[in-house]
Design goal:
0% strand; Arc Repressor Mutant, subunit A; 192 residues; elongated
């Protein structure tokens, strides 16, 4: 009779997510994962199969815990307020949260996307497309209420906001000028 698993899968997955987030997929070793997760090699492989599967599950876990940020767009009563709240939260996470690695796991995964794994590619595409769709839906509501000029190409603005979201993740790792990023977002919101 095999031993039962004596660990909280979500907790160890969260720990693996933090390692991948900080180091990236390629630079993360199995021994580092084992140490961070507090698992034996056999427990890791019995539960997650391999490093690639663990990475995919870590990205799925990340998307789940970041859903509250996307809900700021979904539940916004005003386009400009919703976008401002979303980016205030996003900028704060990128610059102020010392408990988490800098940037974004999805952005980092995209930058290091050399894997031929189609599931991983699809997971990242879904993340990008889902966020862009959230921006588009909020901008569309704004056109319906008159907050956004109906002549504005909101698909272009949704794509712009998606790109700003991911570029903030990259820039915040190198240039720690939070004020400049906030000023940039003020300008973008004025353009709406």
């Amino acid at each position: 009779m095999g031993r039962s698993k004596e660990f909280d899968k979500e907790r160890v997955l969260h720990k693996a997510m933090l390692v991948f987030w900080e180091k990236g997929y390629e630079a993360t070793s199995i021994p580092e994962l084992l140490e961070a997760m507090g698992l034996s090699r056999s427990s890791l492989y019995e539960t997650f199969v391999d490093k690639q599967t663990l990475y995919v599950e870590a990205i799925q876990h990340y998307k789940k815990i970041r859903q509250s940020k996307r809900n700021l767009l979904k539940n916004a009563t005003s386009v400009k307020v919703g976008i401002r709240q979303y980016f205030d939260h996003h900028i704060s996470s990128a610059f102020d949260d010392d408990d988490l690695p800098k940037g974004c796991l999805i952005t980092n995964a995209t930058l290091g996307l050399d894997s031929p794994d189609e599931q991983l590619h699809q997971l990242i595409r879904d993340g990008f497309e889902g966020l862009e769709q959230s921006f588009f839906e909020l901008l569309s509501k704004g056109q319906q209420t008159g907050e956004i000029d109906p002549k504005k190409d909101i698909q272009v603005f949704a794509h712009l906001l998606l790109n700003l979201n991911h570029s903030i993740n990259v820039v915040s790792k190198v240039k720690r000028d939070k004020k400049m990023i906030n000023n940039m977002m003020n300008t973008v919101i004025e353009m709406l």
